[in-house]
Amino acid sequence: MAVTVLLRRRALSSPYAISSCRNAVYVCCPFSNSDLHSMVNSTNLRFWRSYHNSGKFDLTDMTHPHMWYPKAREKKRNVYLHVGPTNSGKTYNALKRLEASSSGVYCGPLRLLAREVAQRLNKVNVPCNLITGQERDEIEGAKHNSVTVEMADVVTEYQCAVIDEIQMVGCKSRGFSFTRALLGLCSDELHICGDPAAVPLIQRILEATGDLVTVQHYERLSPLVPLKSPLGSFSNIKAGDCLVTFSRREIYTLKRRIEREGKHLCSVVYGSLPPETRRKQATMFNDESSDLNVLVASDAIGMGLNLNISRIIFSTMMKFDGFSHRELTVSEIKQIAGRAGRYGSKFPVGEVTCLDSGDLPLLHSSLKSPSPIIERAGLFPTFDVLSLYSRLHGTDLFHPILERFLEKAKLSPDYFIAECEDMLKVAAIVDDLPLGLYDKYLFCISPVDLRDDISVQGLVQFAENYAKKGIVRLKEIFTPGTLQVPKTHNQLKELESVHKVLELYVWLSFKVEDSFPDREVAASQKAICSMLIEEYLERSGWQPQGRKKFLVGPQKLLREYDASQMNKYFQEINTRPK
């Protein structure tokens, strides 16, 4: 499958964009303080009036972020911290309270978790909407929402709100979204679930809000036993095992090695797989009637999937984190190891070991150690503040505005500014286009994987077409009907990249609906990508005689959205009035 058929590539000029941005000229502020007050939206007006009575406006002052959310500050929230290790029931108890509430919201770190909670609530006759950056599943009459944390609504009032995996408040890239939910959710009750390492920080942050905070500690519901011996031979692999490694190529290498023994078939789970594929692979692994009784996975299993794992086996204790190869942290080891022995599963006792005996000391010491205390929470300025800052400096180039703001930002000791390297890279690209500041901001916060060339090319082409025409048709950069089952590892990687581009289109269609009108086509092609990847996974394994086929053939889905139907669709939309 030639990538050039799927995406029409163009060379990027980001080095030039970065150079031109950094040499931008700033001008003196053309606004009075009264002008500035009129431009700050109503959400932040009280904050600015309270903390800038001196007559001097300092938009880079981020020392009182709790005051960014006046609606939440009008309430004295009852906050319950549910903290404990993996598999301790902390989230279960918070969700029971959400089920019993008259209105509520669940905020999770992953789409898989948001979908799981929405399904759970709807199953017990509590109508619940699913809202993520790429999905909207609205239920008539629903007063509950299950959302990814970035989609948290800090204006609507709820009786009950739940934030899951609160330790991610310390995440360099996404922590600010958890901080926003923590400070901004307007609910009578706020239930916060996560690692005990976050408790001191959360307590300090909430001292300023006046909320009433209660901490409830949980213990693991089922035992987790660190083994004294490594796996040894691959012939010792047994049903219910999960081998953990940290690269796509190594995952498939281990899968082939295990399956060559002729005893087991493997499901695979890793971050680049589409969420639907991850969910299906997990389902097949959990299915007792399935032949896929061993899992090979990355740290993507650490959260978001319910897995019936008997034993976790670390193939390595090193990972590449995007910057360097390093040892796994105590928190990472405990999060992954804790997936073994799920309470209520057929494996009531979890075990954990390593492939290499030399890794056992780090494993054992980490499991005995508490997770390091989280010292600071992420913050990021709102678009309103960045917009004002750009007008103060007389430029609509987003890269220099963001870079200068980050240099000048003032924070209290409990906070840090979110990692913005990727955002600055995108800003350097879109600053070369005739776009308004908000449109540039939108592309900068879009979910694009900058380590993936095809994803970057998709983003650039979307931005260029949007800047030129104000509308982006999917057919201009993507040719429906060309998707095929991958035959090689590289083709699999390309198809995963195409899926990311289609997801980006869907995300943008929810933000600028009129300008990205082909959401249905993108969603259908995205589903086809997932099916083709699943077919590759099924074909790539050892095939015992009489093997049960779990996947519906992708050709059926492809026939539903074949090229002739796509052409008919495009002919129809092209005749619509412009």
Features:
single chain; 578 residues; alpha/beta; Rossmann fold; Methane Monooxygenase Hydroxylase, Chain G, domain 1; eight-stranded mixed sheet; 14% strand; disordered N terminus; disordered C terminus; nucleotide-binding; Helicase_C-like; mitochondrion; RNA helicase
Give a quick summary of the entry.
The protein contains 22 helices and 18 strands. It is α/β, with parallel strands linked by helices and 578 residues long. The protein folds into three domains: 61-217, P-loop containing nucleotide triphosphate hydrolases (Rossmann fold, 3-Layer(aba) Sandwich); 224-368, P-loop containing nucleotide triphosphate hydrolases (Rossmann fold), CATH 3.40.50; 446-542 and 555-575, Up-down Bundle (Methane Monooxygenase Hydroxylase, Chain G, domain 1), CATH 1.20.58.1080.
What can you see in these coordinates?
By secondary structure, this protein is an alpha/beta fold. It folds into three domains: 61-217, Rossmann fold (3-Layer(aba) Sandwich); 224-368, P-loop containing nucleotide triphosphate hydrolases (Rossmann fold, 3-Layer(aba) Sandwich), CATH 3.40.50.300; 446-542 and 555-575, Methane Monooxygenase Hydroxylase, Chain G, domain 1, CATH 1.20.58.1080. Helices cover 41% and strands 14% of the residues. The protein is built from 22 helices and 18 strands. The strands form four sheets. It has an eight-stranded mixed β-sheet, with helices on both faces. A six-stranded parallel β-sheet has the order 9-16-13-10-12-11, with helices on both faces. Strands 14-15 form a two-stranded antiparallel ribbon. Helix 8 links the parallel strand 6 (157-163) and strand 7 (186-194). It is globular, with a radius of gyration of 25 Å.
